[in-house]
Amino acid sequence: MAFKGRVNKKARNDRNHAIYKVIAPDGSVYIGITFVRPPTAKKHSRSKMPMISVMSRFKSHCYRANNGSTDFFHTQLLAIGQNNFRVEILEVVRGKKAAHKRERELIELHKPNLNTH
Hints:
The protein is of the alpha+beta class. The chain has helices at 49-66, 72-80, 96-110, and strands at 16-23, 29-35, 86-94. Helix 1 (49-66) packs across helix 2. It is globular.
């Protein structure tokens, strides 16, 4: 008998997530989160993967900014210039639920002004 319908998947708690901060020249801050992709080639070491994943996510923000997004952060990327922003990792957290909880805590702590509009 063929099975129809969606298979319930077990929630994954084994992935690392990087919580990152994007800083504008005037000190404005955006805090975001992305999952850390596993290394895809021998040249990518595990220690470099969080930054590679964060920079990939930042490039995604830049792409959306260049393609008409009206999100406040994206409009600021265009207004200030994408190359003028600095990106840094705040923390790497294991598990999606724990990472999103920690992201909310860091947003409350840092009070970023680029993702509060």
